[in-house]
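User: Can you write out an input/output pair for a complex, sequences first and structure second?

Assistant: Here is one pair. Inputs:
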Amino acid sequence: MPKAEEKKLVARANRTFEESLKEAGIKGAVAVLADGVEMDVRDVPTAEVTIQPVFTETTMGLKVLRHSAAHLLAQAVTELYPDAKPNAGPPTDDGFYYDIDMKPVNQEELSQIEGRMRELASKNLRIDKHRLSKKELLQKFSHNPYKVDKILENVEDGGYSTAYSQGNFVDFCKGPHVPSTGFLRSIKLLTVASTHYKADESRPMLVRIYGTAFPDDKTLKEFLHNREEAMKRDHRKIGQEMDLLVFNSEWAPGFPFYTPNGFILKQELTNFMRGLNLKHGWQEVATPHIFKDLIWKQSGHYAKYKPNMFLFTLPDGDSYGVKPMNCPGHVTIFAREPKSYKELPVKYSEAGTVYRYEKSGEMGGLTRPRMFTVDDGHAFLRLDQIISEIKDIISMTKETYSTILGEPTLTFDLSVIDKDAPENYLITYRCKDCGTEAEARKTSMAEALICPNCSSTHLEPDFATWDQATDQLRKALEEEGISYTENPGEAAFYGPKIDVHVRDALGRSWQLSTIQVDFFMPTNFGLYYINSESKHDRVIMLHRAIFGSYERFMAILIENYAGKFPTWMSPMQVYVVPVSEKFVDYAAKVHEELLRNDIRSTLDSNQETMNKKIKTIRPRRPSYIIVVGEKEEESGTVSVRNRLDKQKVLKLEDFVIQLNKEIKSRSLKQNI
RNA sequence: GCCACUGUAGCUCAGCAGGUAGAGCAGCUGAUUCGUAAUCAGCAGGUCGGGGGUUCAAAUCCCUCCAGUGGCUCCA
């Protein structure tokens, strides 16, 4: 088998790469990289060129493999369903899909399609490239309007492009592809979904078939195994096993209910965050859940968020909205009295529960509920205070993740303005004629802005505030030694922002923390402070959340730990089992001693066998199971079994001391 | 919202060429008094997601509503 290591060779002119590779004794390449361009192995260079073979063990090779697997899928489908019209079939991060205009397929048909794919793969059909003119292509694909669209969009008039054939199947495609279908033996079709053509709801529905392909059966099996493991860790499944949350789809669809166990977990996280906030100067506040619609109109949420808000009108005619965000509440508190420049920054935090109407198809477990609690924070700052505040928040995120998730990999994104499209943002415009400045957001390029003072249309955007804020974000990141990706055009319309992504134990990346600079809301609410010259000055607002949403964070924790939480946040820290009823008294004594020491203990004094008790409590995932019988009672000890099923006997006092230490220090590991 | 699939006891699931509901676990009662992943026996538990229709007869077929799951970003 060829290794994925870098091999370079010089390919001869006027011969296929395949031949040059063969001469060099290299087998199994699915494509080649010639001067950085991916090409088919059967392409023929007109001049000598240095090439690098591409193998399926590399990301690039895997992509080629999966793209070809998508073609194989389309071939199988069109053979089984001659009326089916394939649209597009790209590779994805962990497989491929193909969107096809056809009758919806069920599970059984999916297996048939997969079976046909295997047959075609075992035939090892040659995959050939054909260079065709636009006219020829249009003719060849005239029966398939989707392909016609693509040809019209992608091939210039009088131009040429390529099609690939295998057996009787032909697809319009720029490639590259594996040389023959024999490379596509380790495949699996996964799910059927549906999608609108070009993701446009007004266009026809297409059937999307997801599948995956690997270089060999071993890696495919590994993938399928991991996929199953991930499904076993699904927070909805474990949440039910541990009795953390319940949904009542009839009475409150999309709204999580915390059971006693789930509320313990949430409280532990809240307590952690409360401590962190206090340590970093964030004062805790609480705000109403319902406001008159006036505030939502003034904050700008109404314009943007109305379709996602729970709104109602009372008999007296007053209209109210349930909060989808906490900021207006914090603004109300900040605005209660004028602030001096000496008082800033003012920082408010709240575990604020917000409500957003999510469309029925977009809800899902704890990751997309209609109610969630944000560890929300709003800082009211002077422009020159951004940098130090950002740095401090970054240190809060690091402290949070290292305490709760160990040392996960963090990646940072800096989303900044796209200066070529100022109409997307709230910006200060300056009048070239009279010098008046105005904060505005154009709704489109076409619409001209008018100077509020002299009615001139000679306004130009002034990026100074944006630049200054963005520079401070950049500087904060750099001073913290953080490498980051800068994304132009990804900023919020009201300001630039930093997003933090966290990689969990399953290798999945989640966007959790966000730090956003906001020029908009202070403008809308007329927030100011009094500067050293007794003049009003602009307040900058910072929105920040570290967990993001408690619910989503809990879902990630459940899946990250497979429910086996660090003891400090575990709803059931100790489960006490007497060997038989004779020892219930001693078990009760142990249990009470634990409770006295603020340890969450549960005593099982039921008339069941010890074995059965241990068996049935497992899904609840207690941090420790304690078994006590004659030996323990006589010696004042406990027999402890930890999350890894390791057993140990120790004195009750020692157990309490060690466990207390483990809990108080928020240890991720078990001491016992 | 759109498309597909699914909805039977607290949980996991069987029953569906139409004849009026079944298992295991959990629960309750009793026996057993047990050394680290199921002791035994008995009992109870469901207007089969809601509504409408077809039929002598519907969990099963049809319509409709509700809910859950996967997908609706990756464009030859």
